[in-house]
Design a protein that fits this description.
Blueprint: E1 2-7, H1 13-26, E2 31-36, H2 40-46, H3 52-61, E3 63-66, H4 80-88, E4 92-98, E5 112-118, E6 130-131, E7 138-139, H5 146-163, E8 167-172, H6 180-192, E9 199-204, H7 205-214, E10 221-224, H8 226-239, E11 247-251, E12 256-260, H9 277-289, H10 293-309, H11 323-332
Parallel strand pairs: 1-2, 1-3, 3-12, 5-10, 8-9, 8-10
Antiparallel strand pairs: 4-5, 4-11, 6-7, 11-12
Helix pairs in contact: 1-9, 1-11, 5-6, 7-8, 9-10, 10-11
GO biological process, one term: isocitrate metabolic process
EC number: 1.1.1.41
Family: Belongs to the isocitrate and isopropylmalate dehydrogenases family.
Length: about 325
Amino acid sequence: MTTITVLRGDGIGPEIMDATLHVLDAMQLGLQYEFAGAGMVALEKHGELLPQATLDSIARNKIALKSPLTTPVGEGFSSINVELRKRFDLYANVRPAKSFPNTKSRFPAGVDLVTVRENTEGAYIGEGQQVSDDGATATLTQKVTRKGSERIVRYAFDLARNTGRKKVTVVHKANILKSTSGLFLKVAREVAAQYPEIQCNELIVDNCCMQLVMKPEQFDVIVTTNLFGDIISDLCAGLVGGLGLAPGANIGEHAAIFEAVHGSAPDIAGKGIANPCALLLAAGQMLDHLGQPEQAARLRSAIVATLEAKDALTPDLGGEGNTLSFAKAIASRL
């Protein structure tokens, strides 16, 4: 029996979480849920965006499934998601992008890649941010370490090895950022040499973005630093139909959090029309992480079959169904 921490989230979060748990329950996996609060719901109930009880639950169970959270502007953490990654040292952000049938994609077939993004350092973390007294100059410290670079690149190559993928693309800007991006690239080359069976190539980030838009089928696993990875992973989601089909995993040595990467969409909250696919696909990543790849494949197959049948799809996918009817259609194909 495995217990997971469940964060129902804000906005459409509770709706897509209920739909996801409906499908997981139908799979009869023996999962138990420990519900915990974060975001606006927790702020209203406990006076904190990220209560200690929630952190304790994640630390205890080591696995969390998370709906989108809202971080209020102008108070508290700059981002609850960033804070969770820091607290649990969730250094690997893993974002698959795969073509699905009957979606609004420019590439209806042929895209099947994973972006592995360093999650704990670099420009995105926002260390050393300062604005001069006269408001004329803003500065930011960017720090990249050998340890951070080595473990994220190794994660990417291990992912390729363990899932039968053949190529890892190291994305950088070492031609200009010779210190930070240069160190990342140097360490990546050292790690790549230890995986002779995996093809490794290097791309400067701007060229990588162009290549992704022109010929995405050439990519398999992409590994890069935090800020570049944030941009590239959303670009990749756009290749396969948008964030409604974009799951994400944040993985560390002692905990892992699986999430839908889209926002809380308050404009449609409570209408029952949100697409639950991103969170369902994140649940598939969670099952892979729990050592149940067959069950993860079973879940993904049911999602694909439902998309192919155009059965009870939500409006964003061109259907007339709702969040729960879509989930029930997926559950019926398990």
